[in-house]
Structures are given as structure tokens and as C-alpha cells.
Amino acid sequence: MAAGFARWGNDLYTGRRSYDVVGHRRRFYWVSAALVVLSVVILLVRGFNLGIEFRGGSEFTITNPSSLSQTEAAEAVADVAPAEAPRISTVGTSSLRVQTVELTEEEVVDVREALAEAYGVAPADVTSNFIGPTWGEDVSQKAIIGIVVFLLLVSVVMTLYFRAWRMALAAILALFHDLVITAGIYALIGWEVTPATVIGFLTILGYSIYDTVVVFDKVRENTDGVLSQSRSTYAERANLAINQTLVRSINTSVVALLPVAAILFIGTFVLGAGNLRDISLALFVGMTVGTYSSIFLATPLEVSLRTREHDVAEHTERVLTSREPSSTVPETTADPVPAGASSRQYTGQLQPGGHLGNKAQPRRRKGGR
Amino acid sequence: MGLCAHEKRHPLATTNRKKSRPTRQLVGLGVVVVALFGSILAGNVWSTATWAPKLALDLEGGTQIILRPVTDNGEEVTTEDVNQAIAIIRQRVDSSGVAEAEITSQGGSNIVVALPGTPSEETLQLVRESAQMQFRPVLYFGGPAGTDLGEDPAADPTGEATEEEVPSAEAPAGEPPAEEPTVEPTAVPETAPTDEELDFDPFAPQQGSAENPSDFAQVTTELLEEFAALDCTDEANLSGGGSQPSDSAVIACADDGSVKYILGPVEISGTEIASADSGLRVNSQGVTLNEWAVNIEFDSAGTKKFTEVTTRLSQLPTYEQWIATPQPVQAPGMFAMVLDNLVISAPTSSVIIPDGKAEITGTFTRESATTLANQLNFGALPLTFEVQSESQVSATLGSEQLQKGLIAGVIGLVLVFVYSLVQYRALGFVTVASLSIAGILAYGFIALLSWLQGYRLSLPGVAGLIVAIGITADSFIVYFERIRDELRDGKSLATAVDTAWVRARRTILASDAVSLLAAVVLYFLAVGGVRGFAFTLGLTTVIDVLVVFLFTHPLMKLLARTRFFSSGHPASGLDPKTLGVESIRYAGRGRTSVPRAAGTAKGAAPSKVLVGAGGPGTDGRTMTIAERRAAQAREDAERDTAGTGASPDPSHETTAGTDGVAPSAGTDERKDGNH
């Protein structure tokens, strides 16, 4: 399997096999747009299932109760606060969590005692938490400030590093795409949104940009000096970069997702509701979407932005027109071109023994080299 | 980022590169690891360091209270106010005997109080309570120690304890009081009135209602007994907090426990302070003196009351006069600034201050003046603490979360190991080793920081560590894929490692910079568990760079010298055949490259094969030299494989792309224009 994968990677690298992502970018834009719209609709219609940190209220945790049955808890709460419908869930392997609206201090003491009695534990084993209604808001507000500052800084850093603000813009558009879709899927699954979820979302920020930077670095490398030759267009070079980093993207996302999947699995099936589960779900979805977007959205977006540039547009046209007459030159590729790679398309690697004509030579050499 | 030009040239320069010493970097890493664990060991032996990192409340169990200071009038709460509030809460909690409480500010506005175990309701109350500032007249004061009334005064140790802190009482002589009202600080008495003086009991008949807040009649016998019993040298009495009646006389300690006071009822509340600041004194001629002073300004209501107070106090004996009186029958002309029921300063007021602007002078240093000004400003805010969240985590639940989280981490790690071994074969072991080193370093740094900085590992922190596995492993993947790319171009492993490193290094640094940026921004701007997460994420990013530079790359260089890897053993993960270097390809500059696996001996000298100026090629076009050469090589290769295993004729060997002489064929077309 690995050998086949390596050979596939080799074909992608040499351009023998090529997936025309950039060429079909409109298709991917539609997919992304549809997913984003769907996510927004889910968010608007279904909304987040806000956790107690955002609603405010009191929370009781019973450690090592005599049974994990939830009816006793409901009764115990009903005795003290009859109008209250508590949310009861199992936490970990041997704990119960009871969430209510905000109770007065006396009620808290009463509920604690009632719960301790109902489950046959010492009152010390029933811990009570209180969360003010503004706590979660405060966390999210700070998180939003963090996001804005991070986006500003990362735009500056990427613009400086790549010497192209379009790359920064494309990366950030892709990032928003990731965040919205992740939020949509999270809302769809319907787990509680806790500060841990917010942490998960914040990590996606870093990861999505990180992943995009790796792909863009290859795009930059491939498109360096693209205007001083006439064999390939900017879009084709960028597409080659996607193909060449495809194996790395897949390997990275598998490696990054494996530990997250492990937490998600343990969190969901062993620990139950809690921080680990929330954080890992947000991460799992976000990393998957992030990998997708750096391949299928960020780079095509960057190409779309770039080809609007006068120089690049002119160059693209020149390459394409010069290609028309030279299409009579027979293909020297020894292997049959696999499906998916159009024969007129530049796929990157020189095939041995072929001459592509003087037009393929660089027009002008940059000085100092 | 500004290195691009240099880096682009680098691959070419590698042909005559300096002899690199990968072992040096490995030794450097060894030094880092030894220094890390050595310092923890040293801390373990001579200090309080532990091998296991300290755990945060969500893993260890305990109570966490998050408070947000809010003002009644919507005024902005500054960082100084928050720090002041933290100082007050810390004073209360520390004095209440709760060990290892942690009080920190988060995101600049919230106060997080973490108490281990299950604290008592009283302790929680101490934390939640808001602190008030009050101005009360001083009725009586004395040395801090609590004594029985009959105790030998000679045993009172306070005499020498306070002696060195003599306040310089410098009233600006001849200064018009209206212009430069000066309040003299007398926070510490020169010599505390001894208990002997207290044995006289001249007050008993004077009990009754007070004429004014400074009325000495308020000092009742009970109060004096209480006063005598109060021991301000006992930490527990310095916790502050609690509520004291505002309309009657009370006893209080100085905040540093050096003096104890009997104070009259509240005259001015802290909220009537308009502002306070500290600075160097300026005398009436406008000359700046080399003395620190605190300036305080009252609002209109406060000004009115302050005029009243200073008018009354100016009639009363000054600090020196009062001290000199063996049996005081009236209160000294001093007022006390009481914050959280502790006296922070008690200056004498000898002049009437009608404009509400007072200057407190004395033995201030820059720090102590700033502290007092901050305290006064804090008192000026009608600040209350809003409990944002109060959570108790039982120790069992916390340890279960930690245990399961670690199990998840181990499972994830094992899966990553398996995947990289499947993908990269023997090269996967480099990933395994690098991740292990990264893990060891991460553990060491967390243990070290938990000792030096009081860092505590929280559940989000553990999540950050697990997520970091992926990001760290990605660096190796980027590097390995680059090496494979270079191999696909027909380079030898040694060259490929060098060239790939230059390219991969840039990518790794750029992407890690983004990751680090995210971590730093989140750490400084976010609250709650986000911080713990951002911390581990940032830490592991730095460790990632460290490991890649000091371990993975040097190790790759060493491995590239071994036969197993450089010969491209099928299990090495660097098998040229698997990587598709199977066909003869044009390697640029008129040379072709054939895979070494096809029979070319390692290190064969590049030799050019003469090819005849052949006729037209297959398509009728005249073949170029390169095309002819490639065709020739192809023929040769075909003959070799067809021929019954005969060793290839050395004269027909073509460049095998060894030793970095063969440039990359595909990644940079500009090189191809040379023939």
C-alpha cells in the first residue's frame, strides 16, 4: 500500500498524474459556497446548544454515586426547585452531572444534600459549581478579540513572507470558510458549546493557516520567475504545487487527525460530556475542513486573485496563444496520460529526451544569478 | 523571511560545501536535555522542584472562583485596580491559612482564584467579598503585639522593631496652608505607647455618645481591652475583609502589621476620592524636591467633608505631641486611610485643607508612593466583585480526566508511529525518535516551568500537547517529502538531504511562526482554559523547531552516510525504485540520469558519452544533443537488461546524479536552457 502511495506521490510530483484543481476551481468554489451557506442556515435555524458557561446556572457533580440512574437527580432537584427541569448527564465513568438554572445559595445547599442522600454519597462528594451568565460571553468576547488580532498579525506576516498580500487574503478567506463550516457541523451534531469548544475553534485558526502556509510555500517556489518563461501559466504552476504537496497534505492530516480522533473516541465513548470531547470534535472537523480548504480553496482563490493582476493575466494569455500553433508538435510523453490530466496542460516535469522548442526557453534571465 | 536570496543560492553552493558536523548539533541537543533535567534535579535536591509537573484544578481537584471587578457607575477598571484587588484578595487568603492558593488576573480584567481541595465557606466568603476604602479619624494607636493588660511592658518587642522607620516630619515651615496643604504621614509611630500607659484607665467615666468622630469618649474600656488583645503581628489578623460598623469606633491593624489603631467612625468613603497620584514634591516656589509624595484630590462632597475633618484635626495634638503625652486624654490629629479594614496610611493633619487637595509626604520611596496612590485610586472606585463562575472539581473526576486524556494521547501517538512506519518504513523510526525527543523536552520544560513559574498543567493544556503531536510530526513529513522529491530528481541521498533541508527548513520555520503567533496572541488575549492550551501549543511549537534543527536533520545527515539508507534499501523508505526513479531521464546540461538501482555503481564519475550527429529523430526533426544522448542511454540500458546479466560497460555509464553535480531537472526550468 505504502509503495503504491509513494508511486502515486511520484507521479504527482513529476506531473505524470495530475489533478486539475485550479482549472476546475469554479466547481470547488461552488462546493465551498454551498457548504458555507448550509452551515450558516444550520447555525441560524438550529443554533448552538449553549453550555452552562454561556447560559449561566448551577451545576452539581456527584462522584461515585450508587447508581448512574438520572431519575433520582431529577426528583431531588424537583423537591427543591419544582419549576426547574435539570439537564443531567454522565461524566466520565462514575460521575453524574446535574445542571440547573441559577439557584440561590440556600437552594444550592438543599439540592446538594438532596442529591447526596438520593445517591447515597457523602455531601462532600457532591460538588457544586456556579457560573455567572456573563462568563461564557466573556470568554467568547476575548476569543473574538484574539481572532481579530491574530488575523491582522498573520496577514502582515504572510504578506511580508510571501511578498504577496493576495496569498494572505486567500488564506484568510479559506480560514473563514473553515470556521463557518466547523461551527455549522458542530451545531448540527448538537453537542454543547463550552469554552473548550471555543478553544477548539481557536486552534483551527492556527492549524488552517499553518496548513495553507505549507502549500503556499510550494506555490511560491513553483511560480517564482513564472513570468520570465512561456511554457506554463501561473495557474498551471500553482496547480503543480497542489499536486506536489498532495502527499504531504494527506500524510500531515492523517498524522494530525489520528491523536485528535483518539481523544474524540475516548471522549465520546469513555468520558462522556466534558472538555476533551468538545475540544476534539471541534478540532477533528476543523482540521479536516482546514486540509480540504488549503488544497481546494486557498490555492485556487489565490490563483483567481493573482490572474486578475495585469502582468499575470497578460502572461497567461501569451502562453496560451503561443501554445495553439505549437500543438502540432507531437507529445513526447512516453506514458499514456492518465485521465484527469488534460493533454494540453503543462504538468510540470520535463520528460526525458524531448525538445519543446525554443519557445520553451526562458525569455530573460533575472540578473545576479 | 529576508533570507530568500541567500537560500536560493544555497543549493548550488552545496557542491563545495564545508564539511558539516551533524554530531555537533546532536551534542548541542544533548546539552539542552541534560541542562533541562539537571536543573530540575538540582531544584529537586536544593529547592521545591518536583519531577511531576504541577496540575491545575481541573485535573487535581479543587475550587476555582473567577471574579470580575465591576464598578457601580460603569467606570473603567484599570489594570492597576485589578492588581490592587488581587493584592487584597491574596492578603486575605494567605492570612486565612489556605496554602497554595493561586490568584491571578486573566485577560487583564478577570481575577481567577484557585484554591486546592474543598475550602471552607468562610474562605470562599473572604474571596468573594469586595474591599472598601474608608477615611476614619485615629483615636488611639499603639504597638502591634497583642498583650494581656498586666504583661511586663519590657517584653514588648515593638520598640526596636519600629525604631528604624522614623517618619520625617517635615512641615513646610512658613508655607501658606491654603496654597500647599500638606498632610504629614505618620504611618509608624516612633515609639509605641506601652501597655503600661494603658493600665491607667482614665476613660471609664467618659462613656457615652460622641460629640464628633474624633471624640475620645468613644474609646471605651471594652474597646481598649479588645485593642490590647489584638495582635497585629499575627498573620491571621492581617487578612482584612469582613465588615466593620461604619458609624462607631473600631480597632484595626496597619496593613504591614506594625501598628494597631482604634479608629473613629467613617467620615469619608473611598468613592469620594476623585483621584490620587504619586510624584516628586513641588514646593510653593515651583521647585521640584527630591522627595516622593502622594497627591490626593477629593470630589465636591469629599472636599466638604475633608475640610471639616482637617479643621477638627488641626485642633488636636500632632503625632509628636500625642506620643509625648503619657496619658492621652484626646485623640491625635491624625486620620487613617483604611482599605479592606487595614490601615494603609495614617497621616497627621495639622492644617485646614479647604480645597480637597492634599499632599501626603513622608519617608516614601518611589515604590511605596506609587503603591499608596494605587491603593487610593482603587478605593476611589465603587468596586464590587461579580462571581463569574465558581467551580469545584472533585479530585477523582480530575484524575480520571487526566488518566483518560493520557490514554488518548498514547493511543494517538501509537497510531502516528504505526502510520509513519507504514508510510516511511525505516525513515519512520526517525519520526518516532524525533517525537520521543520532543515529548521528553516538552515534559522537561513543563516540569521546569511549573517549578520556576508556577505553571500548572490543565486539561486544555493536555489537549494542546496531544494536538501538537500532529503539528510536530508534520515538520518531519514536510522534510521527508522534500527529501523524496530531491531523490526523484535523481540526486544522491547525501545531496538530497542537504538540498531538501534548505527548502524544508524555510517551510517549517514559516509554518511554525504562524503557529507560534496564534499561540502567543491567544495566550495574551484569551481567558480561562484557552491560556493553558495556548501555552502548551506555543511551547511545543518551539520544541518542534528545536528538535527538527538539532535532532532530525543531523540524524538524517548521519543516516545518509549509512549504507542502508544511501543505497536505497527497499525498507529504508528511500528506495529510488519505489520513488519512481526508474527511467532514464534527462538531467539537464546535456546529461542523463539513470537510477543507481539499474546497475550504476555508486560514486561513478560523471562521464559524457560521445554521440554521433545522428539523423532525424522519430518525428522527422533533427534530434538535439540531449535527445541523442538520452536515446543512446536508453538503448544501452535496454541492452543491459536484455543482455544476460552482463555487467555494464563502464565506458557507457552515464551520470548517476551523484554528489550533487546533477542539478534538479524539474523544479526549476531556467536551468534547462543551457544546452
What do these coordinates show?
- Chain A: InterPro entries: SecD/SecF_arch_bac, SecD/SecF_bac, SecD/SecF_CS, SecD_SecF_C, SecD_SecF_C_bact, SecF_bac.
- Chain A: One of its GO terms (cellular component) is plasma membrane.
- Chain A: This is Protein-export membrane protein SecF.
- Chain A: One of its GO terms (molecular function) is protein-transporting ATPase activity.
- Chain A: It comes from Sanguibacter suaedae.
- The complex is a heterodimer of chains A (369) and B (675).
- With 369 residues, chain A is of the alpha+beta class.
- Chain A folds into 2 domains: 11-50 and 136-313, Multidrug efflux transporter AcrB transmembrane fold (Up-down Bundle); 57-131, Alpha-Beta Plaits, CATH 3.30.70.3400.
- Chain A has 11 helices and 6 strands.
- Chain A has a 4-stranded antiparallel sheet.
- Chain A is elongated.
- Chain B is an alpha+beta fold.
- Among the domains of chain B are: 4-55 and 394-570, Multidrug efflux transporter AcrB transmembrane fold (Up-down Bundle), CATH 1.20.1640; 57-124 and 387-392, Alpha-Beta Plaits, CATH 3.30.70; 583-613 and 623-674, no CATH class.
- In chain B, 44% of the residues lie in helices and 15% in strands.
- Chain B contains 18 helices and 17 strands.
- The longest helix of chain B is centred in the last third of the chain and has 33 residues, at 493-525.
- The radius of gyration of chain B is 40 Å and the shape is elongated.
- The two termini of chain B are 34 Å apart.
- In chain B, 49% of the residues are buried.
- Mean pLDDT of chain B is 71; it is low at 1-17, 148-182, 184-209, 596-607, 614-620 and 644-675.
